[in-house]
């Protein structure tokens, strides 16, 4: 299994604000800022998923309130219409769902042209194989490890086969993109996700449900680093900013 691990990029830890106190988002961002790489922002439109969360005005306010790069996960219909707006607000990475559009490549090109990284999300019931050929258009591949829509669900280890498949294509194709996992990532699941080939880890409940969210994020980073790297390793630190 060790050949599935990518050890060239620093681990990214991305707390999901979905599990934080929405009345105090700036404070919740500040709590974790020293220990994390991205802030994961779950945008849900009550159509693509049944849940409803937040949209551009809140992302704009968050952007002004924190220096931590924003990782916007759009669980919305019509990403070809809405995704670029998040890039224009200064999101670091904008991920939309493969299931929500017939033309993911055009959306990715538009995101990059607008100045953000482009991410493709694959929900629980979607095979990854059909998207392997378009991975060069993307900077991030988000593999859901639950069904998208709600936080606090149980991690589904069988979905890590998609991570292994994608990691293998990335290695053989010498592609430059991250594999992010989202859903049920916690101290008892992050190592298996890392061993499968993930290098970016979203965690909502495991970080914001902890008494000390920053300490919880650091603990997750250490577990992921150890699982990803068996050779010499610089200590835990925020990766790319
Ligand atoms: C759910 C969201 C996740 C969610 C994860 O659709 O995409 O980002 O916040 O929450 P946990 O870590 O609690 O499973
Ligand atoms: Zn998410």
UniProtKB/TrEMBL annotation:
The EC class name is isomerase
Q: Quote the catalytic activity from the record.
A: D-ribulose 5-phosphate = D-xylulose 5-phosphate
The entry marks the following residues as binding substrate, namely 16, 73, 149-152, 182-184
Any GO molecular function: D-ribulose-phosphate 3-epimerase activity
Q: What does this protein do?
A: Catalyzes the reversible epimerization of D-ribulose 5-phosphate to D-xylulose 5-phosphate.
PANTHER family, alphabetized: RIBULOSE-5-PHOSPHATE-3-EPIMERASE (PTHR11749)
Q: What is this protein called?
A: Ribulose-phosphate 3-epimerase
Which organism does this record belong to?
Salininema proteolyticum
> What taxonomic classification does the UniProt entry list for its organism?
Bacteria, Bacillati, Actinomycetota, Actinomycetes, Glycomycetales
């Amino acid at each position: 299994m060790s050949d599935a691990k990518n050890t060239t990029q620093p681990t990214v830890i991305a707390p999901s604000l979905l599990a934080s106190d929405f009345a105090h988002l700036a404070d919740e961002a500040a709590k974790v800022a020293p220990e994390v790489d991205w802030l994961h922002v779950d945008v849900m439109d009550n159509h693509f998923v049944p849940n409803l969360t937040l949209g551009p005005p809140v992302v704009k306010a968050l952007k002004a309130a924190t220096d931590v790069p924003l990782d916007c996960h759009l669980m919305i219909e019509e990403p070809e219409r809405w995704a670029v707006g998040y890039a224009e607000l200064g999101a670091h990475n904008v991920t939309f769902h493969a299931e929500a559009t017939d033309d993911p490549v055009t959306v990715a090109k538009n995101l990059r042209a607008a100045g953000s990284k482009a991410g493709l999300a694959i929900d629980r019931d979607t095979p990854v194989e059909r998207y392997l050929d378009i991975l060069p258009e993307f900077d991030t591949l988000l593999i859901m490890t639950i069904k998208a829509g709600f936080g606090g669900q149980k991690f589904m280890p069988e979905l890590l086969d998609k991570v292994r498949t994608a990691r293998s294509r990335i290695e053989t194709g010498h592609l430059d993109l991250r594999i992010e996992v989202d859903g049920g990532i916690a101290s008892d699941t992050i190592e298996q996700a890392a061993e499968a080939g993930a290098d970016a880890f979203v965690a909502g409940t495991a970080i914001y449900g902890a008494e000390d969210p920053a300490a919880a994020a650091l603990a997750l980073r250490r577990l992921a680093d150890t699982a990803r790297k068996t050779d010499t390793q610089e200590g835990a630190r925020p990766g790319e900013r």
